Amino acid sequence: MSEIYRSEAGGRLLRERYLEALEYWPVGNEQLRVPTPEGATFVIACGPATAPPLVLLHGSGSNSAQWISRIPDLATHFRVYAIDMIGEAGFSAPSRPPLGSDNYAVWLDAVLDFLGLERVPIMAMSLGGWLALDYATRRPSRVERLALSCPGGIGRQMKGFLLTAILLNSLGRWGRRKSATVVLGPGLSTMERADAEAVFEEVLLVSKNYRYRMDELPIFDDNALRRLTMPVHVLAGKLDVMFDSVETKRRLEAAAPHATVRLLPDIGHFIPAQADAELEFLTNTRTGEQHA
Question: Which of 215, 236, 251 is the last residue of a domain?
């Protein structure tokens, strides 16, 4: 088990904030504690019980509250399962097995088995995108399709930024805000000012109280990427300072020519919701039949 918070008080504060956020979950839901080899995993299930399933995996230093604004649309079409990743700032176990191991696939196997899900589409972002890719390359028969935003593990991770972020985060609130500005990129400018400021404040609070993973994400080799035979839709910001998005596009299109990769200009790691395009991809059963 890893100590993922900087202090007991900091962990308690972030958990309380998460509880408050869940009070505003926009549709009726079930909150489940799923037993797994890595410890209990928190899952929020919502949407019609008879609808097709959709699994959501959030990004680093976050939890399933990251999806709240998207839930009304998604829960109209799917039985949504928002999963708190292990080792992150949610209600799942703080376990952080080695990223290159198959532990994460075994963990997600246990979650899906408990939920009675044999084959699912996965929508994910950033670290969640890496986890979705890891699972899809190890368990391709269990993944129906992938809708990913700024996923790790394909384009190289920008080491220079990590060093800059460590330095900036040591400089107090000003440094943490500067670091967040660089990471998130220009995408926040498309939001209402109050909403953008709320995002900043949440990032600052997390960076003050949470210990981000410092391990470099493993890069999937070409053989692994060729196992992505399911439909794949990727959004990447051209100005992303965390992952080389140009390389992400090049490598994925070469190894999985059926994949759709959109490189968004003037966008960094934070990608504003592309709800219409993502929903069209997720509900396009004809595409699923073509590449399944």
Answer: 215
Q: Which residues fall within 8 angstroms of residue 105, CB to CB, at 6 or more apart?
A: 134, 135, 138, 139
CB contact burial 126-138 (16+ within 10 A = b; e otherwise)? bbbbbbbbbbbbb
57: its two tokens: 């995996």
19 and 149 together in one domain:
yes
Distance from C-alpha of 102 to C-alpha of 134, rounded to nearest angstrom: 9
Please tell me whether residues 112 and 170 are part of one structural domain.
Answer: no
Q: Does residue 95 sit within a domain?
A: yes
Residue-by-residue pLDDT tens, the chain, 292 positions: 348 999 999 999 999 999 999 999 999 999 999 999 999 999 999 999 999 999 999 999 999 999 999 999 999 999 999 999 999 999 999 999 999 999 999 999 999 999 999 999 999 999 999 999 999 999 999 999 999 999 999 999 987 666 566 555 665 665 666 666 666 666 666 666 777 677 778 888 898 899 999 888 999 999 999 999 999 999 999 999 889 999 999 999 999 999 999 999 989 888 888 889 999 999 986 554 433 3
222 and 195 in a single domain? The answer is no
Q: Rounded to whole angstroms, how far apart are CA atoms 130 and 259?
A: 16
* Number of domains forming the structure of the chain: 2
- The DSSP string of 94-108 is -----TTSSHHHHHH
Same domain, 83 and 208: no
Query: Does residue 244 share a domain with residue 112?
Result: yes
Pairing of strands 29-34, 41-46: antiparallel
Q: What is the pTM of this model?
A: 0.91
Cα distance between residue 54 and residue 117, in whole Å: 10
* Contact yes or no for 31/44 (Cβ under 8 A): yes
Q: Are residues 204 and 148 in the same domain?
A: no
